[in-house]
Amino acid sequence: MCLSPAQCRAARALVGWSEDDLSSAAKIAKQTIADFEAGTLSPSERILQDMKRSLEDAGVLFIAEDGGGAGVRLVKGANASIDTNETETVQYEEHLKNDAPPGAGG
Prior knowledge:
It comes from Rhizobium hidalgonense. This protein has 106 residues and is mainly alpha-helical. It has one domain: lambda repressor-like DNA-binding domains (434 Repressor (Amino-terminal Domain), Orthogonal Bundle). The protein contains four helices and two strands, in the order ααααββ. Strands 1-2 form a two-stranded antiparallel ribbon. A hairpin with a 7-residue loop joins strand 1 and strand 2. Helix 2 crosses helix 4. The longest helix is centred in the middle third of the chain and has 13 residues.
């Protein structure tokens, strides 16, 4: 699957990355990323794969064109570099139940 400029922009937004962050992770010039996302440059397949792999490593799942359009999704439980405020974390009641057998500890 090819990486589109829109997917690249959306993927960076999902993980909170700047062009500089992607540039560092993929070892690609920031200007290459900026020009690609602006639609003024068609990088080589190797460069596109490097960008895509770096974003996937950060927790992005690329969704292929399936009639509804290509897209991106943040993988559940990903180790993405997204800052969270632990004081605002929501705990749902169904996750608070202790379903471990007696004496299991923890």
